[in-house]
UniProtKB/TrEMBL annotation:
<dbReference type="InterPro" id="IPR000335">
    <property type="entry name" value="Bleomycin-R"/>
</dbReference>
<dbReference type="Pfam" id="PF19581">
    <property type="entry name" value="Glyoxalase_7"/>
</dbReference>
<dbReference type="Pfam" id="PF20066">
    <property type="entry name" value="Glyoxalase_8"/>
</dbReference>
<keyword id="KW-0046">Antibiotic resistance</keyword>
<feature type="domain" description="VOC">
    <location>
        <begin position="59"/>
        <end position="174"/>
    </location>
</feature>
<dbReference type="GO" id="GO:0046677">
    <property type="term" value="P:response to antibiotic"/>
</dbReference>
<dbReference type="InterPro" id="IPR045517">
    <property type="entry name" value="Glyoxalase_8"/>
</dbReference>
<comment type="similarity">
    <text>Belongs to the bleomycin resistance protein family.</text>
</comment>
<dbReference type="InterPro" id="IPR029068">
    <property type="entry name" value="Glyas_Bleomycin-R_OHBP_Dase"/>
</dbReference>
<protein>
    <recommendedName>
        <fullName>Bleomycin resistance protein</fullName>
    </recommendedName>
</protein>
<dbReference type="InterPro" id="IPR037523">
    <property type="entry name" value="VOC_core"/>
</dbReference>
Amino acid sequence: MHLTLNDAKTAARTLRRCLAAADATISHSRALEIVAQQLGFTDWNTASARLSAVHSGTGVSVPVLRIHDAALARDFYLDYLGFTVEWEHRFEPGMPLYLRIHRDETTLDLSEHHGDGTPGTVVWVPVVNAAALLAEISARPHPRLSPGIDRHAPGGPTVEVTDPFGNVMRFCETIE
């Protein structure tokens, strides 16, 4: 497996988050520079160029999920599942929302546009520890959800949650 530019950016975000938990703060650019040096590069610009060049062929896919209500989507994906907004777009006020969100290595696009995605889509998301994810989201209860772990799911222990629009998120701890 090759280290990607996104891996390096994730490492910088994780570094900042860990330092902040210890009451130490650094800027995002300083975190990028530290990660670049840890990876053996002289600076972030060099790391960014080299890591971008390593990636060839197709990129990481981004599922597009159909939503019907931006407020419900934000409540579920941001407040409950812990995703953060990467960017959002409307052609003008009152028009449908298109929203890109991410959590760790998982990126999703949420769209109110007719024809984007199909309600009832299933997204399989690998996780390191399904029990830890379940504990985290259970600490932020959702009024219509009470997920558990299916320890006998085909891919490994799986936490499954269904969004307000019928889309299913399967967070699976893969077992080697």
